[in-house]
Write a structure and sequence with these properties.
Elements (H helix, E strand, L loop, with lengths): L1 H27 L3 H12 L6 H23 L8 H17 L3 H13 L4 H29 L1 H21 L1 H24 L4 H17 L8 H22 L11 H17 L6 H11 L5 H33 L4
Length: 331
């Protein structure tokens, strides 16, 4: 148990440290004139426009709760939508502190207040993440197809850099793959020799539960509605980004294609570091630079967007932490 906690803390520090490093690294390139420009832009920002952005983001989280509920129904679960939504918000809040902790936490919270199995719920989370990955890939492809001259060329440059780095590290990749197969072979041999081991039985039950949740997507009652929910989540993300342009005068002239690009590259930034700290701002900054937006303005807009999204998670998560036990006080 102590080792697990230490590993969790180490993971947290690594992700947080990476985010802080990126923030410091981005800030070093800004001179006094740039900071003055940032202060001026922030002072003229239209903060009331963040209200519709907050509403759109909260609505996207509510739609996510409805979609998650659809994945639970084939497993025989009918939890309250209100409980699911609050569990989702608390999960997002936990993810700001520790990567992926929120995915486990919302499963255990829901199991606490509803008659559900955490193991099976973990499987539905895996199914959800798979769908989100497919949606993100689709958004990327759409972005590239609509802006082949700008984003397409930029994507090709990134792929070329990745391929160059991969060639230089080919031996490490080969050793890594060989090591993975060797360890897998050792694990299979050990399992065959100790089939009655209690730990193995627990792992086996966990895998079965996760698998049951993962395949639940095949038995969703209304696949069309499930698909519409998935698309609507990303439309709401996109709408929040598009409206956000009007909050800053220097980017208010940007339109639908630019918002699509920020959604694509910004989503990667949110995954890379703790809560997207540093990486999200960098992704937004570099994306806006493709459209001849000064990097100082891109830096400012990236921070405004990140703060808006983080405030939604903080406010929504904290409210859910308070209201969830009150709403379920009789359980």
């Amino acid at each position: 148990m102590l080792t697990k906690r230490i590993l969790t803390i180490v993971k947290f520090l690594i992700f947080l440290g990476l985010g802080i490093f990126m923030v410091v690294w981005m800030s070093r390139g800004i001179d006094e004139k740039g900071w003055e420009q940032i202060r001026l832009s922030i002072s003229k920002a239209h903060y009331l426009l963040f209200i519709p952005v907050f509403i759109l983001l909260l609505l996207s989280h509510y739609i996510r709760a409805l979609r998650w509920k659809m994945l639970m129904q084939p497993l025989g679960y009918q939890p309250s939508t209100f409980n699911i939504f609050n569990a989702v918000m608390i999960g997002y809040l936990a993810n700001l502190a520790f990567p992926r902790l929120g995915e486990l936490l919302k499963c255990t919270l829901l199991a606490k207040y509803e008659k559900t199995s955490p193991d099976k719920l973990v499987g539905t989370i895996v199914a959800e993440r798979t769908i989100d990955l497919l949606c993100l890939i689709s958004v990327f492809l759409l972005t590239i197809l609509l802006q082949m001259d700008i984003v397409g060329q930029y994507a090709l440059q990134l792929l070329d850099q990745f391929a160059t780095n991969a060639k230089g590290n080919s031996s490490s990749v080969i050793f890594g793959i060989a090591g993975f197969f060797f360890l897998s072979w050792l694990l299979i041999r050990w399992v065959k020799k100790h089939p009655e081991n209690p730990l193995l039985q627990k792992i086996s039950n966990l895998i079965k539960g996760v698998a049951a949740g993962l395949v639940s997507i095949r038995y969703v009652n209304n696949k069309l509605r499930f698909t519409l929910y998935s698309v609507l989540i990303w439309i709401l993300y996109y709408a929040g980004t598009r409206i956000g342009f009007y909050a800053l005068n220097e980017v208010s002239h940007l339109g639908m294609q630019e918002a699509l690009s920020i959604l694509s590259f910004g989503s990667i930034g949110m995954i890379v570091t703790q809560g997207g700290l540093g990486a999200y701002q960098y992704a937004v900054q570099e994306t806006l630079a493709l459209y001849q937006i000064d990097k100082v303005i891109g830096f400012t807009y990236g921070w405004l967007l990140w703060i808006a999204q983080t405030l939604v998670l903080l406010a929504g998560g904290l409210f859910s932490m308070i209201i969830l036990p009150i709403y379920n006080r009789n359980k």
